[in-house]
Prior knowledge:
By secondary structure, the chain is of the alpha/beta class. The chain has helices spanning 3-19, 22-31, 38-49, 64-74, 90-94, 128-140, 175-178, 192-203, 216-228, 233-247, 267-283, 291-302, 310-314, 319-329; strands at residues 54-57, 79-83, 95-100, 105-110, 117-121, 142-145, 148-151, 157-162, 183-186, 261-263, 307-308. The longest helix has 17 residues, at 3-19.
Amino acid sequence: MTETHSLDIEVIQQKIRQESAFVDRLFAEVGRVIVGQHAMVERLLIGLLADGHVLMEGVPGLAKTLTVRTLADAIDTKFRRLQFTPDLLPADLIGTLIYDPKDQDFKTKKGPIFANVILADEINRSPAKVQAALLEAMQEHQVTIGEHSYKLDDPFLVLATQNPIEQEGTYPLPEAQVDRFMMKLSVEYPSGEEELEIMRRQSVGASLKVRPVVSAEEIIRARRAVEMIYMDPQVERYIVDLVLATRDPAKYGMDDLTPLISFGASPRATINLARTARAHAFLQHRGFVTPDDVREMGMDVLRHRVLLTYEAEAEEVSSEDVVTRILNRVEVP
């Protein structure tokens, strides 16, 4: 590494230390309400910093909604929770035109999607039209009402949840639409000690409130800082190798995975893996990406992008099993 290059890295490092100063106080404030679930909180913040949306899957009662609401309150942003139901209409989400008889004209009534943090609760309980309206807003960061398009607020983050144990009366998201989520999280049960602390806090009846410790402007500045984080060409090549291994595992010496994978990850996976790895380094107050950052984010970025064959289902092999094998067997730089 040349002296000039080392100097550039040091400049970036100082900038990241400065811009990431809010991270520790944000985690501390959220921790006043949320017990454990550090990985979930971290991934939600990574989604916010990397300008990507997050799909959370887990059984009821794991504090998914509470975590999202607490994070939004701690960041001083506008938060809206949408309970998706089978009778929901796109207009209930994005808004509609309402006729004003006094002015004899139509006026725009904006929907609840005009907020910074949107919690789409049980997204798989709404029909395809509503899902499509939400996903279009996620992709374009704008909605169209009548003949006019309206930009959504910045930052804009959609956190969607779905329940994996109930499929009756649901409308599963198509694989192509799930791909639009930057990450898919599998929310796990708390540990015994964490559950003991949850019981103690909740049994006394006192409801803790968080205060805003980060502004929306700080998050926008942090996003720009994340883009500055240095990524070595070898780490870039490692990201590409991981994604290519999901499409052609035999090329990487994993012939046993070939009959298990129907479709590998799309180029969105490559882009999002790079962006989330940078955001993960930012949370560690680091101005450069390491292979460990990539490995840490690999599962959440890839698990919903690797589609399996019937043979894999017959052998009870999950997409997480396949991604784990790829992460363990692709050579780390």
